[in-house]
Design goal:
The chain is mainly β. The protein has three domains: 5-75, no CATH class; 79-190, Immunoglobulins (Immunoglobulin-like, Sandwich), CATH 2.60.40.10; 196-251, no CATH class. The protein is built from one helix and 18 strands. The N and C termini lie far apart (53 Å). The relative contact order is 0.13.
């Protein structure tokens, strides 16, 4: 088989015989199960592959009779990047989050919602290692997700398995060792194919002297999904203005 990577979802409890048998080119296995699934020695052929697991559960995998045979069992994590703010880059069924590190951070929590309901929650430790992941149940029974590695001026992480042509909101919260919030970022994004932003009609919304004026509460987002409402009047380019009635694109 030419398979080079595989994903084991967080809801998987067992792996059948020969599931990854004859996958001699398998280089990375991403396992999101909090406890090692029941597996047979024949479930895998190439135990020289990298096994990526949640950092808090690494020891259980090291001690497991089958998974412990992997030569390299490493923590899932976020890519090392240079950034001074949160950026969001959505694709067809995924989204790349980039956010700054905080010197006193003990954890980073990313919560993504769809239609007001929590779609997924991911938790990282101070080193950007993924320590927890939870997705809402999906109709097709599939489990999203994949990951990368650690520290610097910022972190980057790709969340996969999102619904296409859909709108999401997010909140990224940074907490210190006392569990106190030291930074929080909110915003929204849409996966490719979502067009509802251009269909809304908000009669009370207008632009006067380069600033949004509206008779109802509103929020302004840039194209990366960051909330920039407090910069109203000093914006240039394309933005999304959202109210309870929907959202529209505005060009300043």
């Amino acid at each position: 088989s030419g398979l080079t990577s595989g994903i084991i979802g967080n809801s998987v409890r067992s792996i059948g015989e020969y599931a990854f048998y004859d996958c001699n080119k398998l280089y990375d296995v991403y396992c999101y199960a909090t406890t090692p699934p029941t597996a047979d020695q024949s479930s895998f052929t190439n135990y020289n592959a990298f096994l990526h697991v949640l950092c808090n559960n690494q020891q259980m995998y090291l001690s497991d009779e089958v998974f412990g045979k992997f030569q390299s069992i490493v923590c899932l994590g976020a890519d090392d990047v240079m950034t001074n703010g949160v950026t969001v880059t959505p694709g067809k069924n995924d989204v790349v989050f980039t956010w700054p590190t905080e010197g006193s951070a003990n954890s980073y929590t990313l919560e993504i919602k769809k239609d007001g309901m929590v779609f997924c929650t991911l938790t990282f430790n101070a080193n950007g290692q993924l320590t927890g992941i939870a997705f809402m149940p999906r109709p097709d029974g599939s489990t999203p997700a994949k990951a990368a590695t650690s520290v610097g001026a910022g972190y980057q992480f790709t969340v996969t398995g999102l619904d296409g042509a859909s709108h999401y909101t997010y909140e990224l919260t940074t907490k210190d060792a006392a569990n106190q919030v030291i930074a929080s970022y909110t915003g929204e994004f849409s996966t490719e194919g979502f067009t509802a932003l251009e269909d809304a009609v908000i009669p009370s919304l207008r632009v006067v002297d380069g600033a949004v004026v509206c008779d109802e509460p509103y929020t302004i987002y840039d194209i990366s999904g960051r909330d920039v409402t407090n910069q109203n009047g000093n914006l240039q380019g394309v933005y999304i203005v959202r109210t309870a009635k929907g959202a529209v694109k505005v060009v300043f």
